[in-house]
Amino acid sequence: MANEEPGPASVAALRNAVLRGHEPPPLPAVAKLPWYPWAVVGTVCIGAFMGQVDASLTQMLLPRLEHDFHAPLSTVSWVAVAYILTMASFMPIFGRLADMVGRKLLYTSAFLIFVIGSGLCGFAPDLPTLIVFRIVQGIGAALLTANSIAVIVLAVGPEHRGRALGLQSAAQAIGLGVGPAVGGLVLDTLGWNWAFWINVPFGLLGLLLGWFVLPQTRHLQGGGRFDWHGAFLIAPALTAVVALLNEGHTWGVGSPAFISCVVAAIVLLVLFVRAERRAETPLIDFTLLRQQAFLTGNLANFLSYATLFGVFFLIPFVLVRIYQDSELVAGLRLSIVPVMLGLLAPVGGGLYDRFGARVATASGMALCVAGLAVLYLFLDGNAANMPLVMLALAIFGIGQGLFISPNSSAIMATAPEELTGEAGSLLNVVRYLGISTGIVGASTVLALGLAAAPGSNGITVDASAEMLVFASRLVILMLGVLGILAGALSLMRTVPRKARGEHAVEL
Q1: DSSP class of residue 66?
Q2: How many domains does the chain divide into?
Q3: Is residue 206 located within the same domain as residue 341?
Q4: pLDDT tens by residue, 322-365
Q5: Which of 7, 95, 335, 456 has CA 20 to 30 A from 417's CA?
Q6: Rounded distance, CA 336 to CA 315, Å?
Q7: What values do phi and psi take at 5, rounded to 5?
Q8: What pLDDT digit, counting tens, does each position of 417-460 carry?
Q9: Residue 196, φ and ψ in degrees, nearest 5
Q10: Which domain holds residue 435?
């Protein structure tokens, strides 16, 4: 296991490490297992599973929250966006802190924060309070995600990187698949509050396993100052951009709020970039973006996740409002996307290990676009076409499964070993910015499509089925364009020098 091999340990060593506040070594019996690196991968997969359960489950809650609080789409979407935006803002901060104080220490404490945030969300009395508690939950999720890829890559080495990241993608896909079904069941039986409380037992399990299984962080970066300027600027900068995308159509282009948000976004982003370029140890190392393969892969990463979560945002409204499904039935139908993604993710990782990234990612995104085309044609409110709608979602999920793991592996292959942590952190930031953009974009286009519906006021509850079909098709068109761009970038990707010797064939 590169750079993080476990040393000998005893029960006394574990106890003393805890008392000193240091990272304890893994349990001796676990560290001696021949498949110990895969135990580390499995532990990280618990966090990946839990985070994706919450992300997909929340999408199922949005139609119910819109109804219960009679809130417009732009407001309801913040329940999902606030969580994702918090993750994107804090992951670079936690990635750097983990390099200074230890990945294991922060990873395990993340489970506790996530559990606390989940419990508070379940007790939220109104929508603004729920959004605030989602931020707390998002901080815990950011701690979980910031170094997950780095931990996996360092645990298994380059020869098994694709397979290990494929397993992580599969765990995420299983979480995505379970989330809608569980969310629908909870909504039908217990109420939306319980959708957050079910995270608690998984969080406690992850806390125990992370503490006793994960290896100590080796070669901590003790030198250099923490980039406080960047840390203070990144969250408001990203928030200004997302707020502009989410609320801009409501404010109006000439409104003071719109103009102020544009100015704030530009100023904060410029200040953040300047701070990162001047920082001794920046949160985001922009030198990585000078590599064409790294930049191209991350742009495709952004677009693919925007497309995926745009679908996750749209489909619950389609199934509940247009087809009059119950929350449980809608959740089961939506699960076909992550289930197919999870089944194909290890295949995508294996294809990368054997052939490289180009054909796997381009073909995967081509399938995504094909699935969206079928969805556009047959999403018409006619129950007789529901099998074709499900087929479209299945094709889309297969395409995402073939795309995500090879693309992540290709991105990590371009980064120097000493920048593995920074590369993984930036990959995750781009991923969650893509998710936020997908949710915000789908919400905005759906609201604009409903604007002509009498009395809708941006609320799907008040819109007719015909208007919902029209608006939904606009969203699908937007997502199709994003998918085409991601596929084109995949075909354009270059093969970095360090990766050319890793594959027998690079297509």
Answers
A1: H
A2: 2
A3: yes
A4: 888 888 888 889 888 888 887 887 787 777 777 777 878 888 89
A5: 7
A6: 12
A7: -75, 135
A8: 666 666 776 787 888 888 888 988 888 888 888 876 555 566 77
A9: -90, -35
A10: 11-227+280-500
Regarding whether 273 and 131 lie in a shared domain, the answer is no
Indicate the residue type of 243: A
CA 215 to chain centre: 25
Place of tokens 């815990």: 140
Predicted TM-score (pTM) of this structure: 0.78
Between CA 92 and CA 143 the distance in angstroms is: 10
Residue 2 lies in a domain: no
CA angle in degrees (0–180, nearest 5) for 30-36-39: 90
Max Cα separation, the chain?
Answer: 70
In a domain, 360, yes or no: yes
Closest-CA residue to 62 (of 316, 290, 401): 316
C-alpha dihedral sign at 312, 314, 316, 319: negative
Query: Running DSSP on this structure, what letter comes out for residue 22?
Result: P
Q: Which two tokens stand for residue 113?
A: 């924060």
Contacts 24+ apart (CB under 8 A), 118-126: 118/54, 118/196, 118/197, 118/199, 118/200, 118/203, 119/196, 119/197, 119/200, 121/193, 121/196, 122/193, 122/194, 122/195, 122/196, 122/197, 123/193, 124/193, 126/69
**415 to each of 47, 66, 297, 423, 458, how far by Cα in Å?**
24, 43, 12, 6, 44
Residue 24 gets the label, from left (phi > 0), alpha (psi -120 to 50) or beta, of beta
Alpha-carbon distances of 1 from 27, 48, 157, 160, 163, rounded to whole Å: 16, 21, 6, 11, 15
